[in-house]
Amino acid sequence: MSKTHKGWRDSNWYHGLSNFFREYRKHKIGVIGLGILLIFIGMAVFAPYLGTGSPNPLKAVAPSYLAPSWMSVFDPEGVVTNNYLTKADLNTAPPIHINGTSGEFNATYVPESESSIGNYVNLTWQHTAGTKLNYTGIDPSGNLPDYSDFVYFEQAFNWPWNGLPNAVNMSISFGTTRTGDFAEGAHLYNNLMFRLYVWVVTPANEWFKVYETLDATYSTPIRERRIPFSYLDVLDVFQGMVAENGTPTYTNSTVKVYVGMAAYHNFESYGGIHPWENYTGSVTFTVTGIKLTAYGNYYGRLGTTFWGSDAYSQLIYGSRVSLTIGILATALSTILGVIVGLVAGYYGGKVDEVLMRFVDFLLVIPGLPLMMVLAIFLGKSETVIIVVIAVLGWTGTARLIRSQVLAEKNKAYVESARAIGATDTYIMFRHVLPNVTPILFANITLGVVGAILSEAGLSFLGLTDVEVPSWGRMLADAQNGAAFIRGAWWVVVFPGLMITLLSLSFTFVGHTLDQVLNPRLRER
User: Fold this and answer.
1) Class of the CATH domain delimited by 305-523
2) Which residues have CB under 8 Å from 465's CB, separation 6+?
3) pTM of the entire structure?
């Protein structure tokens, strides 16, 4: 074991790498560049875990140009947009309340371990013919049922702000199961005899009804019903929890959401039938989730874009696009440039003349306009963008390799290889190429910078997929949405900073590689 370990330590590649890193560490700018690059690689690899929402630039999660949430510390009445109540809150058994003495209402909590649809609560009305519910009359506020017999469960959430939200959206997911005389189609109007309610209860125990099924069509499959709060609903629920005369009424107020069911069957008979006397059956509401989102002036870690999408998630996922396109386009252009440069430099003559004149022709044509034309005609996918950048980015590498090959092909080791019968292909790739490789590494890293900037430029001009998150796309959206005029500086500064830092990291690494691998520079 020790001999094997010693042999591994004595290998040429190990000594080569050790010497390389020893030299590389002497250059602080290279270490800084490598550190920044590793951070961006980590962002790209762990983007699904670092992102806080959908990276789709067109998927709105909040109103446009909401400021980052950390800026709310400067706004005493600021409200951060967030989901203050989610389905995850049903992971524990909620408090259940049964009003009245009829004994016909019940509720049960079923955990995920005992169901195939996750955690849920069943609200049940089991009616027996002849049982009459307690009618209390119409509530003057319109917030409570007309009967004191009903069942509900509660979910609580904290409201930590002194300000009013600009808007509130709520949703409830439930399905309905009916049996007996309440089954679908069993009797006319039987769906009018039961209702599902959603109340929001303030810390002052004020009940506000925000949803009622009325004569809605009930379905057995679980469906999500959206409940947008009106302006008056927002005032009713939240106004009592904000600052009055500079003093908060409540701090970290616990607001409760009640979801319950009530029955209505003491109306006059129709068709000679008195429902409460003649009907027997059950109604069960299966509630699987409640969600409440309050929209304020702030959102997430980096706010929202012009389209209302999550700027932070786009910034994180944008590193994937820039690194993928930058590295793959540079790799493809490098392969093409190396082959052309090797062939032109090694064979010389007419082959060299034809290839170099073609390279000169491509160098004369403005790169960005040609990229725009190719991107428009070939498409906007990432693959097309990589090919377009690579096809127009190999000329510099070809000229560089050609110049080095011209200096190498007449050396003694090449003549010796020819003398023993080695083929031209073998000599080019096994002898000449390794000797020009050191200068190639530095050129590759600098080529990645050009590819990243080209991708950002094409994205800024709208020539890439609009649903793919990109730093250039973020800057384009900021320009189209007049970000600076509207004070949304974060959608301009951070994408620009990411492009700059990533480009600088490759530049620093490339400069250091040139210092370490280029013997002439190392001797100075």
Assistant:
1) mainly alpha
2) 380, 381, 382
3) 0.80
